[in-house]
Amino acid sequence: MRKIEEFVSMLVHLSKIDNHVADEECKLIHYIGEQNGLSSDMVEGLIDNPHAIPSFNDIAREDKFQYLFDVIQLMKVDGKVFSSEINFAEKMALKLGFKAGVVAELSAYIYSDPEITTNKGFLISLAAEYVID
Question: How many structural domains are present in the chain?
């Protein structure tokens, strides 16, 4: 199984945590999957039947940041952020090698619309302060 399939599955788990996958969440999951080489049908298959959440131990640091960025963006995309989504995002941050507080720090600078972006270099420098040694 390729890493992008694992990651998309993680996003699906987050989107389903409130027992409802909002249209905005589904669109963002498709966008991320397709931008990373998955067909629309493959993404739909993962939405219907996501894989278990992996450990992500062998992922490069810059990819871990991008995964965290995408998790936070998905959490915010429908305009409603539930405590269960925050808890999930914090658990994923820990799995990716960051302290849970990184979610709150980055959330202030990550927008729900994928077309609106903050300088990634700035966000990476913020996240670096939360890397678990």
Answer: 1
In-domain check, residue 89:
yes
Looking at the domain assignment, is residue 133 inside a domain? no
Residue 16 lies inside a defined structural domain of this protein: yes
Task: Give the pLDDT confidence of 73-122 residue by residue, as tens digits.
Answer: 999 988 889 999 999 999 999 999 999 999 999 999 988 766 677 788 99
Question: Taking the model in full, what pTM does it have?
Answer: 0.84
CA–CA dist 16, 47 (Å, integer): 9
Q: Which domain holds residue 20?
A: 3-128
For residue 90, what is the domain's CATH number?
A: 1.10.3680
CA distances from 38 to 8, 22, 46, 82, 85 (A): 10, 20, 10, 28, 25
- Contact yes or no for 29/14 (Cβ under 8 A): no
What burial letters (b/e) apply to 37-69, b meaning 16+ CB within 10 Å?
ebeeebbeebbeebeebbebeebeeeebbbbbb
Residue type, 72: I
